[in-house]
Amino acid sequence: MLSHQTQAVVEKTIVTLCELAQKKLNSNSMSNGSFSEVKLLVEAAAELVDSVRN
Predict the structure, then answer these.
(1) Is 54 helix (H, G, I), strand (E, B) or coil?
(2) Which residues are CB-contacts of 42 (< 8 A; sequence separation ≥ 6)?
(3) Separation between Cα atoms, residue 50 and residue 6, nearest integer Å
(4) Contact call for residues 34 and 20 (beta carbons, < 8 A)
């Protein structure tokens, strides 16, 4: 079980990763590279969620 402080940091990191992905998706200058970046951000957030669950 994670400490309360660690849990808060992990949750904030997940939210930040998702916000960065959202900003990328909303930007007017989407390129193929941008989609790769969004995918990496979302995958990173998903891995954090999985690691907290286990």
Answers:
(1) coil
(2) 17, 18, 21
(3) 15
(4) no
Contacts of 49 (CB under 8 A, 6+ apart): 14
SS3 7: helix
- In this prediction, residue 20 carries a pLDDT of 92
DSSP 8-state symbol, 17? H
Read off the amino acid at residue 38.
V
Predicted confidence (pLDDT) per residue in 5-44, tens digit:
888 899 999 999 999 999 888 887 767 678 888 899 999 9
Q: In what helix (H) or strand (E) does residue 38 lie, and over which residues does it extend?
A: helix 32-53
Q: What is residue 24's predicted lDDT score, i.e. its pLDDT?
A: 86
Q: State the pLDDT at residue 54.
A: 66
